[in-house]
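Morning!

This is the sequence you dropped in the shared folder:
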Amino acid sequence: MLFITLLCNDCGYRHNDVVSLEASEPLRYELVVEGVEDLNTRVIRSSSARIRIPELGVVVEPGPQAEGFISNVEGVLERIERASSALRDEKPSRYQQFLEKIMAAKRGKLRFRLILEDPYGCSAIVSPKAKRRRLSSQELAKLLRRS
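The structure's back. Tokens below.
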């Protein structure tokens, strides 16, 4: 894996990505997070990967401005929490409910699934508990249409 960071010293623009140095097949990882110990599980997300957490109603789609990162499950939840702050003014009660679920997940009190789907196989959830499988041709086509 190659981790790339682009940084402009003049304007402060920053962009990260993770690129596999080997060709790989389209992959799907699924981790069931059942407690606080699972929050430390390593997550490698390339800019081509979709992240889903169905129990939170979260879908993070890949796109031209998507960033790759290396983090852990807790870090993924923190990124989602920061990105969700846009809902604060639009739908305050819905935002509060969402925030409560995120906090429960970060405390290990909410069982949820973290699903990572990458058409280029450059992403991973590094845990023996994570289920890994090849994306079906239908899943791959659907993922590529959205990105």
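Headline: The chain has a mean pLDDT of 90.

More detail when I'm at my desk.
O.
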